[in-house]
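Re: duplicated header lines in exported structure tokens

Our pipeline writes sequence and tokens for each protein into one text file. With two proteins the header for the second block appears twice in some exports. Here is an export where it did not happen, for reference. First protein block:
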Amino acid sequence: MTTEPTLPQPTTVPSQRSLVVKTTSGLERPEATNQAFTVAAAAVAAGVEVSVWLTGESAWFGLPGRASELELEHAAALPDLLAGILEAGTVTVCTQCAARRGITEADLMPGVRIAGAAVFVEETLRPGAQALVY
């Protein structure tokens, strides 16, 4: 007599996944920068909870107009990707990165915040979180 394997039963509450994307580069590495924003925007479009962290030279993209400085052939425009992320996700400039560049909360685009490593760690350690670094 053979028995069928027992399959897990669906739960009534779906698992909530989140994506934390950290980008560490800016205009000096346009492909890596654009890829980070593209992945984050795609996740937002798919309904995933998304948090993007701007560190290093990418901190400049938290300021109005700065995303338009990145141009990359055959890629979505960075201002469009950033706008899509801001509609449903979170964008954060690293506290230390902002301080090193003289960036303050008053300088940032609406919807962008400044926060530190403790918040990053909290977001990446949530159950169901996936972190990517570009």
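Second protein block, exported in the same file:
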Amino acid sequence: MNEEIIDGTSGCKVRTGAQNEAALLALMEKTGYSMVQENGQRKFGGPPPGWEGPPPPRGCEVFVGKIPRDMYEDELVPVFERAGKIYEFRLMMEFSGENRGYAFVMYTTKEEAQLAIRILNNYEIRPGKFIGVCVSLDNCRLFIGAIPKEKKKEEILDEMKKVTEGVVDVIVYPSATDKTKNRGFAFVEYESHRAAAMARRKLIPGTFQLWGHTIQVDWADPEKEVDEETMQRVKVLYVRNLMISTTEETIKAEFNKFKPGAVERVKKLRDYAFVHFFNREDAVAAMSVMNGKCIDGASIEVTLAKPANKENSWRQHLNGQLSPNSENLLVYANKEEGHSKTLGKTPSLPARLNGQHSPGPPEVERCTYPFFPGTKLTPISMYSLKSSHFNSAVTHLDYYCNKNNWAPPEYYLYSTTSQDGKVLLVYKIVIPAIANGSQSYFMPDKLCTTLEDAKELAAQFTLLHLDREHNLFSLDLWRRIWRK
């Protein structure tokens, strides 16, 4: 006879192992799906009974978080079947037999996945327990850094095929200053997320070399998804691989050759530009004609620009996923040469929040002056300076607390482990002076791979919320905080 245990904290009945097994067997018998547990996950289906043909395309999978640890497929599957037919349900499992609090659900169509997000995100799956559902980033692309700059695309592709399996393509960008060289990195596209994950595990930074160089390996930024309806309205082209010396006037003249007067304006930033058209039809036609053309000796690439989600732009920027530019447009990442150094400037480092590279903003001008022997130095406190002397959000937060005669902010560090075994970090910040108010602490909803990023992100998050409540900071101050 199976006994049920009562959880003293929630009052819910906790099932025994035998009861769990019986419930799962009943689910399998009812649905005809198979179930297998391997590599820390339990797979239900994949494919379902009677399935013929290839698996569903990308965009059919959703990520489910905040699942109660004692909830399993017999309860979860019926909930997610409300949105459509499940191709595969993957529940992440602990050695203890509990789930790890998250799962992946793959539907047979993209429409079903989108419906699941609409009807099940923030769904109360148990009294007081709300799950989160969002699109799963099925990333198939790796970022490979520290590649010798003289290597051509064909050489990099051949080498990656030798050392990893499932390579589909390699994306290599020419240097902004010397088109005969690459930028010291490449994006490697794999046939599946699993193939990319296996390759990433093999190419462990510090232990694997290509052409005698220790390479850098990480997940590439996933491509930003923009719905088809929005893309049908875009009339701006993204033009890359331009020469640094090419002017906006030259670009406008070249694109106007296709149809005089069609271009409204051009905005160029370093070696790429946005070309705005008066009519979408002209933009689409110009894209077809101009892609691959030479301007000032450089073969350009032309695509439709991807509009940013304005509602999420501040949140995306806070999470290190979006770099500001004058057009507020999303484009594929342009990773500049991270090791190049210019006199009088500090190289801009790509943000690495949440373990991913993000395109960095333009280089920050740093004024330096010679320090002559005998120069008199006066000791001062940082609190005697103006806020315009700070760029770090951590320093701004400390400065603000001191200015208001508050105790310094308290930082509490937490960690967890990602799906691929990476240690992820997040700080919780407590402002003692306001801890008894409406908000007792501040914690961002993104995790970082480095301590410095985690602390800076937490400080940015706290400043943003303080500003919303008290309108503390000027736009110029926010620009200095975010430009890192």
